[in-house]
Structure formats: C-alpha cells, structure tokens
Amino acid sequence: MIDVKLVVDLNRCQGYAQCVFLAPDVFTLHGEEALLYDAGPADGERDHVSQAAAACPVHAITTDIPTHHDGE
Ligand code: SF4
C-alpha cells in the first residue's frame, strides 16, 4: 500500500470547501476559513483526494498522486 501525501497551502486556501465536499473524511472546515486536513490519508481516499485537488478553485492542494492510473 502506498500512502497518499497531501499538502494544502493554507495561505492560498480561500475556504471554498470544494475539497470538503469531495473528500469529507480528509478535509474539514472549521468556521469560515480554517481548513483542517489529514496530511497522510488512507490509500482508499486516493480518488477523493485527487478529485478534491482538481476541484480546488485556487489550486491550494498538492498531492503526490501520479496523474496516470494503472487500471484503477
Ligand atoms: S477547495 Fe481549496 S480553497 Fe476550498 S477549502 Fe479546499 S483547499 Fe481551500
């Protein structure tokens, strides 16, 4: 199993909560703009995290998930 590594640039994050919507087990919004996230989510969250990273309007989410998928 390969762990997912995840970094959110909180200076860039505007609290749009797209990531919270797409990966609620990884991202949590507290209040208006305080985003909490799991920096090492389970492998099963890979697709959710990938979708969340793609959906973030300000591209604040960086992951080490490769852009190619091997039959997933
Ligand atoms: S989608 Fe992007 S801007 Fe919105 S809360 Fe998540 S990291 Fe922040």
Automatic annotation (TrEMBL):
Signal peptide: none annotated. Gene3D superfamilies: 3.30.70.20. This is Ferredoxin. GO terms for molecular function: 3 iron, 4 sulfur cluster binding; electron transfer activity; iron ion binding. InterPro entries: 3Fe4S_ferredoxin (IPR001080), Fe-S_cluster_ET (IPR051269). It holds the Pfam family Fer4_13. Keywords: 3Fe-4S, Electron transport, Iron, Iron-sulfur, Metal-binding, Transport. Its cofactor is [3Fe-4S] cluster. The keyword Secreted does not apply. Ferredoxins are iron-sulfur proteins that transfer electrons in a wide variety of metabolic reactions.
